[in-house]
Every structure is written in structure tokens, then in C-alpha cells.
Write a structure and sequence with these properties.
Residues 363-542 form the Orc1-like AAA ATPase domain. InterPro entries: AAA_16 (IPR041664), Hybrid_Histidine_Kinase (IPR053159), P-loop_NTPase (IPR027417). It holds the Pfam family AAA_16. Helix 7 packs antiparallel against helix 13 (300-310) and helix 48 runs antiparallel to helix 49 (1011-1028). The strands form 6 sheets. A 5-stranded parallel β-sheet has the order 9-10-11-8-12, with helices on both faces. The chain has a 3-stranded antiparallel β-sheet with strand order 1-5-6. A 3-stranded antiparallel β-sheet has the order 15-17-16. It has 1284 residues and is mainly alpha-helical. The two termini are 69 Å apart.
């Protein structure tokens, strides 16, 4: 419900209410001599400039302008609004609708500030303030208005009693018979008359002095009997001024200004260029002054708005800023309401005089793009697998937009970590990731010994364990959290150090996110310059957190970064296959209107006033935000856009800006800005640009000392000029384009010489201080210079050695892509006859490059390196490392026959023969091994001597690779490999590979029936691992050893051993061992009746990892199980694994290969098909695959727990088939399965007793002994419940 009051009464009441509230809040000045409050003039002035009054007055003004806009909103009904007739005092025709909701005095005092002339302050209690208000003017809000001559209705006192006058519902003109349609009244007339209303509204009820003078003259004429018609043909309407000559048709001008008065054509573009019309000596008025409004403390923007409305009626005062349309008036008022800080409030000239024009992060808008990022982030932390990428050309605002998301998320407690890739810093391992995580550690260290820091440190020590030192190589500041001793670790060989560091990074992020209970946002800028190792780490992070939803990755890159041939584009395609959605936000350049909006916001002026300036800037900048910002800074610096102290706003000289010869692109503009600086500063900037977008101050100081050139002080000058920033001990260019501009100042033919000079100068400093970071920077600079920059052959060899040292350091930091780059560069610096003249260095470089190629799965590079070593190696032993890399690569690529053949050949050359073995030799080789170990107690074996012969250590590695391959293609020959491994260990000492030999031997012993003895050797293997301290093969030892322990301990206990094995193997970079444990964990979880929905998630994640790391053999076992799970959950064939893991298209091919090359793969495939048909009671298909299962030589060569499911369900199926066919072969198969399961139950009641009872029941049922069958069925159910 609302009440109605006239505008003039509203002004009177609102001013009084605001003035009184102002007095009460500020304790207005009280004169003790006169015993009076401060004058009413002071109170009125402070009231009209107070925020409550201005806010309400602006709402009224905007509402009136809305009604007078010529353009009718289609939603308003399609009719033109009525306006008061030209001869009407418009202010008297305005009525205000107010809300009847009651408010406290607090609402009036909310935004008021104490006045400077206050002498005391009353109580701040709202109740006391309300009482004071009622005691001073108890009837302040109660007014009664009589009908006026225009027929306005009477406002009843009790309807408006206690109405809050700042709660304006709407405002409108009261209708009269004399009103006319908007189209019948001149636009200028409406703007001018409304301007008079605004003058009265914002002055607190006062009218312009010129209007009052004119009214006094008219009154005097009436008193003396003078007819107004004799003066001007018709009476002047109240609120209009006679500015025309005596012979002007005033009314005609108002009504037909567009047709009859070209001088006043508001659309005439040449209006300002015409000669001003001379005023007649008979003109009765001058321009209306808004100076009284300024004296009341009214904002400059409001004073200018009213002035520009009133100027339109007098051609002598029309200027560019004068309003031409009511729409412009309405839009400017709306901007004041929407953005008062920019378009209403006065500028802080004192501050701006110091800071100049400020371009903040939000100035370029991007609302829709920012919303897309927000939604992507929200979906990610709500459980969806998602990341986001911002794409656009350089200078488009990608980093600004990402930082806005960081501020948004940080406000909710998230951690926003950022790093940046650099084209000239690609030789620094994990540069962007290290920068981001280093910053987090630095922030955390600044908290001192806070409880949260100690909690994070404790959890990191537990998660990282002894591997923390490897991560410390990448994140040096991690030591600030972990404390002393964190960097110590065993420098032992690692199967895949890059996989290890990726896993450790995942653990690090997981710990810091869980400790804070908030997501981690990792923003990496300029991904088009990213290195392969960093992209692999990012991919691992995305997959690691795919089910934990504590990590959100945000990247930015230029358009070329999304091309398929670029590594980052390939990574995006890959993660999409694994179910991770990537939101791509593409940024475009600003259009002309948006550019004007930005200029308007920057200068705090209406868009209509900045249009001409923004058009010039858009023409030059083409809408590129960075180019735009540099242009604005340049214009301000040159004084073409400047502050006006008299007008208290920004102003510019349009003609000079238009005629200014500006560069056509941002590169030229930036170059011109740099060349304005002193030569010494230019030189320092060029030097800094050679190191990329940023560089440590320590490096710059070292270079300054070695070369004897000034760098630090000139760069400080560049900092003052805003070209370079100095933050956290780093000099960094303000933008990539600035670095490019400085770098382009160096002549292209001289750049290689400068790079080489800087690199050679820094090398000595790096070696003296053992500074790995500076070593990377120095060698990278030399490599950028290239071979042609060095003329001395001896110096080339030195550089090759430096590259080898840097590559080894990079391998220690697990960046094998970077390490390979160093080794490759080192090879290019070698002289032509390097194999003859520098054999050892050549062999070292090629061997190291080969190992890196293996880790990178770069088969082509590995082949090239291998060919060179095989061609020039002087000794067979010099080829062993390369041969081992090739054997491993073939095994990873599922080329098991080739891998086995090469390994057997190498072992033969090492004097270790492996004769072909038949099934009959299986137990013979086991017995030979037992004889070899006879007489050794467990302690004797654990404390045995350590192997030191290099050739024997390499032979053990080849045997270990051969053992696992034999399990797939020649299982009967596996014990012969085990025998050789243990024989070498006894003859030459224990090596890091010896625990594998004892583990597999324990498996073979158990296969022959002695499970207890087999477990003994598995325990010996675990103790050897602890004693030797190597974790290179620990994952495989735990995976295979735990399979045997499942037969003696409850499955609920032993299944967690595989989780331990996965963690240890990942920490050691042993992907083979890690994936083996992961696959076993999933299989056991499924067969031990874990809930299907949980199994599905685990299997899908495991399949993603197996496919990512290329372990097709294991994938061939897991994918069919995943398909079985989905079928059991009711999924159709069309809804199978293709939606879960992105690699289902490979299922048939993988299974085909597995059946062809793997004995166990063939058994697994047939069993899984039999099981699914059994579960769906499809008898014929079940029987067909069961026949295939039993026809395949189903010798249990090794103890795998999943094999127990094959035995159990094979027995159940055999009993069913026998009942249907009465074929005794099936009855015997069922009985054999029962006997085997009963034997296993003797060592583990917990895992097998209920299965043995169930097979007894099935056999009894086949024999028609229903009583016995019922008894065993009940016993099976009881045992299962007991051991669940």
C-alpha cells in the first residue's frame, strides 16, 4: 500500500527529515550565546547533499525522465505518455507515491557523516534518537494538502502519517485536460522544463533566481494594470524564459523547432561550429546559474546534468555536452543510481593528482566470460570432473579474468595458486608449477609456529615420507614448512622418477586442500609455452582428483595453444577421454560500444560524453584491452587527457588526440615508450628480456658483477616508469608484450651472442654457490645462443659437460623432458669426432638421453640413441643400460615375445643360460631352488652380503623383467628364472632385485601345495626390502607377495596391502608395480562382494590410469570386469564403458591381443564370459565358455587370488551343467573344484570355508541327497555371515 503526496510537499518533508536526522547524528552546532541551533540554511544545505535525500531524489528524477522519453517501451502497452501542457509549472504537477512501511530513524542516518562544526554528540541509541525526533517536530511527517487548481486530489493526513519519505514507490505527472502527447511537445522544451524541476528537486525546494526575478516582473505588471498580451503576444508560461527577439514566434519555436528553427536543430552536427547568435537587447533573461547548487555541496555531476538540461533553450550556451534527447537524460540518471561511486560522487582530485588514471581489474567488464568461469568452478567443487581454460590473443585480458576468479574463490576460503610459463624459461624444471607451490609454502611459513602450519607439516611428513626430499628439489620452499632434515633422501635408482614426482605433487595438493577444508585452484598462465613434464603433472593432478573434487585447474593460452599439434591441445583431448570436462572461455577484442563503456567508467563520465574519444582509441587499439590501456596511459602522460581542477573532472583535447600520430600496433607503441627512456635503462631492459618475463634479483646482481655493467639501478628506474615490477625478489615485466618489445630492440643477428655471453658469465657463479636454479638459467642461455656462438672447440666440450650436469640435475628433479633437452643440446655441442676423442662424455650423454626417452615413451628418440650406442660402444658392458631400456620399452608396449627374446639374448652374453622348460620341469626347478637354500635360516638370508658386481646387478634386472613376462606367455618356465635370481643372490650377494626372486619363489612353493612355506619366503622378501632400502621393485614385491597372503589372512586385512604397495610404488616412480597393485586391489574388491557402485568408480579410475600409462596387459583384465559390473547394474551394451573411461573403443582390440599373446589372458577372458552368462542364467552361452575355460590348460602356475573365483564359480557351473546333461565329466570338474577349495579353507577359514560348504551342497544336490544339500547350504550361509 502506498500514499500520494505532491513533489513540493515531498521536498519540504524529506529535507526536514534529512536535516533533522543529520543534526541528531552529527550533533549539529549549538550557539550557547543565542541559545539556538545552527541556521536553517546550513541545515537545509547539508540535508539536500546527504545520501538518503539524494538517493530518493535521483529515483524521482529518473522516474520523471522515463515518462518523458519519446521512445515508448513496447512493454508499456504501446501508447505515448501524456505530458503537462507547455504553459504549466511542471513541478506543481508531479505526485510522489510512497511506501507506507514504517522505518526507524536509523534508516535516515545510515549514510550520514558527522559535520565538521559539531560541538557535542547525543546518544547513539536509536530509541533516544526517535524520541528526540518526535519531541522536536512531532508532526513532521503529517501534512494535509488541499486540491490545487489542476485538480490534484487531497492527501489525507492519517494516510501519510509517519511515511518514510525516502521509500519512493513511483513518481508521475498528475493528468489534466490540457495535457498533450509527448510527440506534440518539442524535445528541447521537455528537457528544459524538466531541468527546472530538477533544479527545484535537488536544491531542496528553491527555484532559480532568474525565474523568481521574472515572476516578480510579471506580478508588478499586473499590479499596474499592464496587459501581458501587450508585452509578448501571449503570457509566458511559468517556468519558461523569453530568450528570443520580439518578433520570434515563441510557441512556434517550441512546437516546431525541428522544422522552423534550423538554428536550434539539436541534431545539427555543425551547431558548435556556427557563429554564436547575438542576443537581442530586448531579451529579458540570461542563462540560469547553477552556482547556488554548488554552494549547497551538491555533487558536480548533478550540477552539470542540470546545467546541460537548461542550456538547451539558449543557443548561446549550447555546447557538445548539452542534452539533445530525454533518453540521454534518463540514461545518465540511471548510471548515477547504478554506479554512484563512478558517475555521481565527486572525484578525489588530490589522490588522482598523485596516482593518475587507474586501470583496475574490473574495468574491462567480461561479465559473461566471468560467469562461465564461476559456473565451471562451482560445478567442479560440487562433484563434477571439470577444469577451465581461457583462450585469446596476447593482451586480451586472460590473466585479469583469472585473477578475478581467484579473488572470488578466495573470498569463500579457497586457495588460489598461480604460476606462469615463459618461452625463454622452458629450461627450468616445472617452472610454473614450482612458482605456484613455492608461493603457497612461503605464505604458510610466514605464519610462524601456528597450529594450522604445524598440522599441515605433520600431514605432509606422513604423506610424503622419505620421498619428501625429491619434491623439495621442485618446491624448495617446502623445506620452510617441513623443517630441517626434510631434504635428505636416498639417491637410489628409480624406475620412473617423473611418475614419482607427479604422484608426490598429487599428495602435496591433496594434503594442503584437506588440511584447509577448501578447494585448491591452480592457475597456470601462457600454457602455449608449457613443457611436456609440466603438462603430464597437470594431467596427473586432474585424474588424481577426478573423484575427490578438491582441485580445480584453470589455465590460459593463446589460440595456437589449442591446436591439436600442440602438446596442451593434445592433453585437453586426452583428459576429455577420461571424463574430465574442459570449459573453454574464448575472449574476443572489445567492440566499439564496449570500448566506450570502458572509457566512461575510467573517466567517471557519461558514455555520451566520452563517445568521440573512445572512437579514436578504438580505431587505434582495435579493441585489444592491453593496447587500449597503454594508449590511455600514454595520452595521460602526454597531457592530452588530464584533470581539470576548475571543472573537477577529466577533460581532453579531441582535435589533438585525433591528429596525434599513434603507432598502429601495441608492439610499436611499447617500443616507442621504451625508447623514450635513457639509454642505460633501455640496455638493462634488453638484458632482462633475454631471461624471459621475469628474473630473480640475485641473478641480475650476479650478472651485473660478472659483466661490470649497470643493471639494478636502471631497472629501478623502469620500475618507477611502470614498465617493470619488483615483487618478492624478482624483476618482472608488467606484461608479455613489454618483454617482447624490449627483446625486439636487440638486433636479431646479435641475440645469440648476448645469450651466450650472459650464460657463460653466470656459469661460474652457479658452480661456486651450487645454485641449481642459476645453473639451469646459465646453461639455457648458452643453448639459446647455440653452437654457432662458440668458436673455441674446447669451450664446446665444456658446454657439453655443463649440459650433462644440468640434465642430471633435471633428472633428480624428475623433469625428464627437460633433462632430455639438456642431453640433446650437449650432444650438439660435441665435436665431429666425439666418439673417438671424448668417448666417456659421449656415452654418458647418449645413455642418459636414452633413459629419458624411455620415461617419455619416445620410441623414436630411444631408437636413434640406441643405434648410436650399439654402433660406437667399445665394450659389451657399455651397451647394457641401453639394452635394458629397450627390453623395458618392449614390455610396456605389450611386445612381450620381443622383450623376452632380447632379455634372453643379453643374459646369454652375460653367461646366464635359460634353457627351454616344459611343464615337467616346473617342480624340478622348484626343488633345485629348495636345495640351494637348504641350511639358510631366515635371519641368514636377510643379513646376507650385498651384491657389488655391476654386471651381475644388471643381470638381476634383466631376470626381474623376464620373470613377469614369463608369467604371461611361458608360465612353466618361470621357476627357472626364479632359480637363477636366487642362485646369483647366494653366489654374489643380495641386490635390490633379490626380493623379487624370493617373492616369486614363495608363489611357486605355494602352487605345489605348501602355502605356509610359500608365505615364509614372501616374508623374507619384505624384510630384504627394508634392509636393502631400495624401493625400485618394492611395488611388484608387495603386489605378488600379498596375493599369497590372501590364502592365510582375512581378505579385509590383506587387500589394504595393495593400497600400501600402490603408494610405495608411485613414490618410487615404479609404474609397473603401482598399476599391478591397483589392478589386484580392484579385482579382489569385486570378488569379495564390495558394493557394485563403489567398484564401478574404482574400476573406471583404474582403467583411466592404466590407459594413461600404457599398461595394456593389465587393462585387458580390468576392462571386462568393468563391463561385467555395468551389466550387473542394469546398463545396456550401448551404455557400457565408453561413457566411463573413454577407452572402451579399445576393448575388443585389447582382448584380442591379450588372448593371442597371454595364457592367463585367454583364461581370464573365457571365465569372465562364463560368469556373466551364469549370473543372467543364460545356460547355453555359459556352457560354451565354461567348455573353453576347462579346455585351456588351466594349470595354476602362480597363486593369484582372482584364480580362486575362477575355481569356485567353475565348480558351481560344472554342477549346474551336470544336472542338466548328466555328463560325468562335469561332475568330476565340480568335485575337483570342491577338493581344491576345501584345501584352501584349511589355511584360511575366513576366506574359503563358506565356499567349500556351498560346493559340498551343490555336489549333494547333484547326487539327489537333498537333506545333506540343505545342511551344507545352511552351513555356507552361516559361515559367510560369520566371516563377512
Amino acid at each position: 500500500m502506498s500514499s500520494i503526496i505532491s513533489l513540493r510537499e515531498w521536498i519540504k518533508c524529506a529535507v526536514e527529515a534529512a536535516g533533522l536526522a543529520n543534526e541528531l547524528f552529527a550533533s549539529s552546532y549549538y550557539d550557547p550565546d543565542s541559545n539556538n541551533w545552527a541556521s536553517g540554511t546550513i541545515r537545509r544545505s547539508s540535508a539536500v547533499s546527504s545520501n538518503p535525500y539524494l538517493n530518493s531524489a535521483l529515483v524521482i528524477a529518473r522516474s520523471l525522465a522515463d515518462q518523458l522519453c519519446e521512445k515508448v517501451d513496447e512493454n508499456s502497452g504501446g501508447h505515448l505518455p501524456l505530458s503537462p501542457a507547455p504553459g504549466t509549472d511542471w513541478a506543481d504537477r508531479v505526485v510522489v507515491h510512497l511506501s507506507n512501511e514504517r522505518h526507524n530513524i536509523d534508516d535516515y542516518t545510515e549514510d550520514l557523516q558527522p559535520l565538521p562544526f559539531s560541538s557535542q554528540r547525543p546518544s547513539s541509541d536509536p530509541k533516544e534518537l526517535q524520541a528526540m525526533l518526535n519531541s522536536v517536530i512531532p508532526d513532521l511527517l503529517s501534512y494535509t494538502k488541499n486540491d490545487d487548481e489542476e485538480g490534484a486530489s487531497t492527501c489525507i493526513a492519517d494516510e501519510v502519517n509517519n511515511v518514510p519519505f525516502h521509500d519512493v514507490v513511483r513518481v508521475e505527472f498528475s493528468h489534466s485536460q490540457n495535457d498533450e502527447l509527448c510527440s506534440q511537445i518539442s524535445e528541447m522544451q521537455r528537457i528544459y522544463n524538466l531541468g527546472l524541476v530538477f533544479y527545484e528537486l535537488f536544491s531542496g525546494g528553491e527555484r532559480p533566481p532568474e525565474i523568481n526575478t521574472q515572476n516578480d516582473t510579471a506580478e508588478s505588471m499586473r499590479k499596474h494594470g499592464v496587459n501581458e498580451d501587450d508585452v509578448d503576444g501571449e503570457p509566458l508560461p511559468l517556468g519558461r524564459l523569453s530568450i528570443f527577439n520580439d518578433d520570434d514566434d515563441v510557441e512556434g519555436i517550441f512546437k516546431n523547432s525541428d522544422d522552423c528553427c534550423p538554428l536550434l536543430d539539436v541534431n545539427d552536427e555543425n551547431l558548435m561550429s556556427r557563429k554564436k547568435r547575438a542576443s537581442s537587447s530586448n531579451c529579458t533573461s540570461n542563462a540560469i546559474s547553477i552556482e547556488p547548487l554548488r554552494q549547497k555541496g551538491l555533487y558536480v555531476s548533478l550540477c552539470d546534468l542540470i546545467n546541460n538540461m537548461l542550456d538547451i533553450i539558449n543557443v548561446d550556451f549550447i555546447k557538445d555536452e548539452t542534452y539533445r534527447t530525454m533518453t540521454d537524460v534518463r540514461n545518465d540518471l540511471q548510471q548515477m543510481l547504478d554506479k554512484p561511486d563512478r558517475f555521481l560522487h565527486d572525484l578525489d582530485l588530490e589522490k588522482l593528482a598523485i596516482t593518475g588514471l587507474q586501470l583496475n581489474e574490473a574495468v574491462f567488464g567480461r561479465k559473461m566470460d566471468f560467469t562461465d568461469l564461476q559456473n565451471s568452478y562451482r560445478r567442479s567443487i560440487s562433484g563434477e570432473n571439470e577444469c577451465a581454460v581461457i583462450v585469446g590473443p596476447s593482451g586480451i585480458g586472460k590473466t585479469v579474468l583469472a585473477n578475478r576468479l581467484g579473488s572470488f574463490a578466495s573470498a569463500d576460503g579457497a586457495f588460489f595458486l598461480s604460476g606462469k610459463f615463459d618461452q625463454l624459461q622452458q629450461m627450468t624444471p616445472f617452472s610454473a608449477l614450482a612458482s605456484a607451490f613455492n608461493e603457497y609454502c612461503h605464505r604458510m611459513s610466514e605464519r610462524g609456529q601456528s597450529r594450522h602450519r604445524q598440522e599441515v607439516a605433520t600431514k605432509l611428513r606422513m604423506a610424503l615420507g622419505g620421498e619428501a626430499g625429491h619434491l623439495l628439489k621442485v618446491i624448495p620452499n617446502l623445506g620452510l614448512i617441513l623443517g630441517e632434515g626434510a631434504g635428505q633422501y636416498d639417491d637410489q635408482d628409480c624406475a620412473n622418477a617423473q611418475a614419482r614426482i607427479q604422484y608426490l605433487l598429487c599428495l602435496f595438493v591433496d594434503v594442503i586442500s584437506r588440511s584447509s577444508g577448501a578447494p585448491i585452484i591452480l592457475f597456470l598462465d601462457d600454457l602455449q609455452w608449457s613443457d611436456q613434464a609440466s603438462l603430464s603433472a597437470i594431467k596427473q593432478l586432474l585424474l588424481f582428483f577426478s573423484s575427490k573434487r578438491q582441485f580445480f585447474f584453470l589455465g590460459s593460452c593463446r589460440e595456437e595453444g589449442l591446436l591439436q599439434q600442440h602438446s596442451f591441445g593434445s592433453m585437453l583431448t586426452s583428459i576429455r577421454q577420461f571424463g574430465v570436462h574442459a570449459t573453454v572461455v574464448t575472449l574476443a577484442c572489445l567492440d566499439k560500444n564496449t570500448t566506450n563503456t570502458v572509457v566512461s567508467d575510467l573517466l567517471c563520465l557519461s558514455p555520451r560524453l566520452t563517445r568521440t574519444l573512445s572512437d579514436i582509441i578504438f580505431q587505434k587499439s582495435h579493441g585489444n584491452p592491453f593496447f587500449f590501456s597503454q594508449l590511455m596511459i600514454s595520452l595521460c602522460r602526454d597531457g592530452l587527457v588530464r584533470l581539470s581542477l576548475s571543472r573537477r573532472r577529466w577533460e581532453w583535447e579531441e582535435e589533438k588526440v585525433q591528429s596525434l600520430k599513434l603507432p598502429d600496433n601495441v608492439a610499436a607503441l611499447l617500443s616507442s615508450n621504451i625508447t623514450r627512456l635513457p639509454k642505460e635503462v633501455q640496455s638493462a631492459l634488453c638484458t632482462l628480456s633475454c631471461f624471459g618475463a621475469r628474473s630473480d634479483c640475485v641473478l641480475i646482481e650476479a650478472l651485473e658483477t660478472k659483466l661490470g655493467i649497470p643493471l639494478t639501478e636502471p631497472l629501478q628506474v623502469a620500475v618507477a616508469e611502470g614498465i617493470v615490477d619488483k615483487v618478492d625478489g624478482k624483476f618482472s615485466f608488467g606484461h608479455d608484450k613489454l618483454q617482447e618489445a624490449a627483446y625486439n630492440l636487440i638486433q636479431a643477428e646479435n641475440r645469440c651472442l648476448f645469450h651466450c655471453q650472459y650464460g657463460l658469465a653466470l656459469v661460474q657463479h652457479a658452480l661456486e654457490r651450487l645454485d641449481d636454479g642459476m645453473l639451469f638459467a646459465a646453461v639455457s642461455q648458452i643453448n639459446l645462443g647455440g653452437r654457432a656462438a662458440i668458436e673455441d672447440p674446447k669451450q664446446c666440450v665444456t658446454v657439453a659437460n655443463l649440459n650433462f650436469a644440468a640434465g642430471i640435475k633435471a633428472m633428480e628433479m624428475s623433469d625428464f623432458s627437460l633433462a632430455y633437452s639438456f642431453f640433446d643440446h650437449g650432444i650438439t655441442f660435441l665435436p665431429k669426432r666425439h666418439w673417438q676423442e671424448h668417448y666417456d662424455l659421449s656415452l654418458q650423454l647418449f645413455e642418459a638421453a636414452g633413459k629419458c626417452a624411455l620415461v617419455k615413451s619416445d620410441a623414436l628418440s630411444l631408437k636413434l640413441v640406441t643405434d648410436q650406442i650399439f654402433k660406437y660402444a667399445k665394450r659389451f658392458e657399455d651397451k647394457l643400460n641401453t639394452m635394458f631400456n629397450n627390453v623395458t620399452a618392449l614390455a610396456y608396449a605389450t611386445q612381450l615375445p620381443g622383450s623376452v627374446a632380447m632379455a634372453v639374448t643379453v643374459l646369454s652374453q652375460l653367461g646366464i643360460e635359460l634353457p627351454e622348460s616344459s611343464e615337467s620341469d616346473f617342480k624340478i626347478n622348484i626343488e633345485r631352488t629348495k636345495v640351494l637354500l637348504r641350511g639358510f635360516a631366515d635371519e641368514d638370508l636377510v643379513d646376507y652380503k650385498i651384491m657389488s658386481d655391476p654386471s651381475k646387478i644388471m643381470a638381476m634386472k634383466f631376470l626381474a623383467r623376464l620373470e613377469l613376462s614369463f608369467q604371461y606367455i611361458r608360465p612353466a618356465s618361470a621357476p627357472s628364472v626364479t632359480l637363477k635370481m636366487i642362485q646369483l643372490s647366494i653366489d654374489h650377494g643380495m641386490s635390490p632385485v633379490s626380493p623379487i626372486g624370493f617373492t616369486y619363489f614363495g608363489q611357486h612353493v605355494a602352487t605345489c601345495g605348501d602355502i605356509e612355506e610359500g608365505c615364509r619366503y614372501v616374508k623374507i622378501a619384505r624384510k630384504l626390502l627394508d634392509r636393502i632400502g631400495s624401493k625400485e621393485f618394492a611395488g611388484e614385491v608387495i603386489a605378488m607377495g600379498s596375493q599369497l597372503l590372501h590364502f592365510v589372512k582375512p581378505i579385509q586385512v590383506t587387500i589394504e596391502l595393495h593400497h600400501e604397495g600402490y603408494t610405495i610404488a608411485m613414490g618410487a616412480g615404479d609404474m609397473q608395480g603401482a598399476m599391478l597393485n591397483l589392478a589386484f586391489y580392484c579385482g579382489i574388491a569385486f570378488w569379495s562382494t564390495t558394493k557394485l557402485i563403489i567398484c564401478k568408480e574404482r574400476f573406471a579410475w583404474t582403467c583411466r590410469l592404466l590407459d594413461q600409462h600404457g599398461h595394456s596387459n593389465l587393462l585387458s583384465h580390468i576392462l571386462p570386469l568393468l563391463k561385467m559390473i555395468q551389466l550387473l547394474m542394469g546398463k545396456t551394451d550401448q551404455e557400457d564403458t565408453s561413457k566411463s573411461n573413454g577407452v572402451a573403443a579399445q576393448v575388443e582390440e585389447i582382448l584380442k591381443n591379450a588372448k593371442q599373446i597371454s595364457h592367463t589372458g585367454s583364461i581370464a577372458f573365457n571365465f569372465q564370459q562364463m560368469y556373466i552368462h551364469f549370473m543372467f542364467r543364460e545356460f547355453d552361452n555359459m556352457k560354451m565358455f565354461a567348455e573353453r575355460c576347462f579346455c585351456v590348460n588351466n594349470h595354476n602356475w602362480i597363486f593369484h587370488f582372482p584364480f580362486t573365483s575362477q575355481m569356485f564359480y567353475g565348480g558351481i557351473v560344472a554342477c549346474w551343467v551336470y544336472r542338466q546333461t548328466k555328463d560325468p565329466t562335469w561332475a568330476e570338474r565340480g568335485r575337483s573344484a570342491k577338493v581344491t577349495i576345501k584345501k584352501w579353507a584349511e589355511s584360511s577359514h575366513h576366506n574359503f570355508q563358506h565356499k567349500a560348504y556351498l560346493l559340498e551342497a551343490e555336489e549333494a544336490f547333484c547326487n539327489n541327497d537333498t537333506d545333506k544339500a540343505q545342511l551344507y547350504y545352511e552351513m555356507a550361509v552361516s559361515s559367510a555371515r560369520e566371516h563377512q
